[in-house]
Amino acid sequence: MRKTIVSLKAMVIDRKVTLSWYKSTPLFSQVSTNEFDLFRIYRKEEAFAFGEDYEEFFLNHDGADAQLIFEGSLTAINNRKYLFHDDSVETGRTYSYFIQTQTSCRIGPVPVRVRDPEVWWSYEYMMSRINNLCEQSGGIACHSICGRTVQGKGIPCLEIGDGAKTLGLVGLIHGGESGPELIIPAISRLLAESPQLFRQVRIAAIPAVNIDAREEMVEGTPWYLRTNFQHVDINRNFPVHWETIEYGYGLDSSDISSVTYRGAQPASAPETQAVMSVFNDNPPDAVFSFHWLAGICGLPALASKYAGGDTGYTGKCENLIMKFGKGLYPDLDFTAEWLSYTCSAGSLSAWLYDRFGIPAFDMEGYVNPDSHERECCRADQTDRKLITEYQERHTNALREVMTELANTSQES
Predict the structure, then answer these.
(1) C-alpha dihedral (17, 148, 132, 139), degrees to nearest 10
(2) Residues carrying CATH 3.40.630.10, the chain
(3) Each residue of 121-158: pLDDT tens digit?
(4) CB–CB of 167/204 below 8 Å?
(5) Sign of CA dihedral 6, 10, 11, 14
(6) pTM, two decimal places
(7) Topology (CATH level 3) of domain 123-411
(8) Does domain 5-113 fall into CATH 2.60.40.10?
């Protein structure tokens, strides 16, 4: 059945939902029609489970049980595009919308999730925080654009201090995971509380790599997004052990339909190239790449699976993770569960080990003394209280790591 409207879209702006749609081409071409004199807009709150449900969750919804939230006329922009603003939504909820014209069936669904902008930072907000950090650093911090995403957004690189040692921090390799919300506040607090550390340890931070996917989630895509806008998993795209096909999560990294697709060739993604350019120019002494879900990460740390027999390397890794864990969870003692050697072919951590032999970690989040926190993140229910707590935890964890690197520098 031909639809009366097309390009139905929902977008979250300032915790409100904006719907947009167009007259279909045949009806727009008609000289006159009363089909658009009346609109009915329906909304349904969905029992959507983040990390378990994906786009297919919304297939075949007919909207029969959706609630009517608007009935009336709307004025078209350029005689074709319509907008409707819904400010009665709640943060942390997932909705489906349906539109009905005079004679049509309900058209939809268009799904959207309303997220807290203090928990899920937009690109614009992240850049404002980076600018503020640099302006308030007294010249210690600066930033540059190290590359651009598929959609052309500048990927920022923060450089703080001039120490002999360098600590690398990387966020948002995957759009639905963690990065700027932890990295930028932690650096800001360290500058205020422990400025002396930056005379011994320089930080090179790329707080957000997969910015395009993150923006989609900020704007309301309900499901977890992993790949960039070329459908490439950036953490399988680095030029290391490229001949190896990975089958993690029951997926095939050579399969373009898989969310772990490694790309057509090594370092084909512009985001991968941006990260490589930062570390090739000034190799760090250790790198922490932030993962897990919904803005939070911690332990375990995952290092290259190709390093398991390198005892000198594994000793360095264990020492740094002991320090990181001491700052993150001061009441816990180090256990073997905190560190594993499982980072796969094409991953950032495997490339950094292969290229420079430096300790490099993917920071996850399922070793956690409070399962409630873990389950909140898994369900995309991270709130401001929890993100604030983990900003403080990561400040303490990075302080411990920087102190260890500074001590190592003095010893050498």
Answers:
(1) 180
(2) 123-411
(3) 999 999 999 999 999 999 999 999 999 999 999 999 99
(4) yes
(5) positive
(6) 0.96
(7) Aminopeptidase (3.40.630)
(8) yes
